[in-house]
Amino acid sequence: MKHLMLFTLVSLIVFLACNKNESNSDPVPQESVLEYYPLTVGNYWIYEISNCDSTWTACNPTSIDSNYVSKDTIINGMKYFKIEGGNFISNEPLFLRDSLDYIVDNHGNIKFSNKDFNTKFNEEYVVVDNNDTIYHWYSKMDEVPLIVHVPSGEYTCLDNKLSFFRIQENFETEFNGHYALSKNVGLIYQNVMFASSTGGMKRELLRYFIQPPIMP
Known about the structure:
The chain is mainly beta. Helices cover 11% and strands 51% of the residues. It contains one helix and 13 strands; from the N terminus they run αβββββββββββββ. Strands 1, 2, 3, 4, 5, 6, 7, 8, 9, 10, 11, 12 and 13 form a 13-stranded antiparallel beta sheet that branches. The longest helix has 23 residues, at 2-24.
């Protein structure tokens, strides 16, 4: 009987010790999408803007542009961060927020995700009056990291890659645009295409400033 009681006591001690170790183990921190697009007031990014031909091998720098997080604001009850400065598509400011690990704008467009590599974002068909489709595009996060070389250095990025198709090629040739972000930095490289020529414009990171992380 004594041996049985001793065995039971030892088993109980081991069980409690194991439970204590398990409860004290630190959970693996989940990577936030805000690590790729740090939306802290005061952060800024400086870019070189270039025009490129249809082959994207001849690109001529044309200007320097900047983006900066100027403030946060409430839109339709949601907190957004205002990104000011040109983006070579429009001079209108961007309003961005983290929505369950998606960077979204105030129009509901998904700009970036660090976890969803399956969903097609912002898919669109351009149809003319005779109901013929002339252009089709969508963007989708590429699970394969993109290595980007820009004036500020080399970065490993996650890329929200645009797939663009035209009636001129019978929708069989895929042209690609890129919206590439690097962890702890932000937007590194972006390009847009002209539908008529498939040439376009690109912007590449020159320098940046990111606020130090706030320690708990």
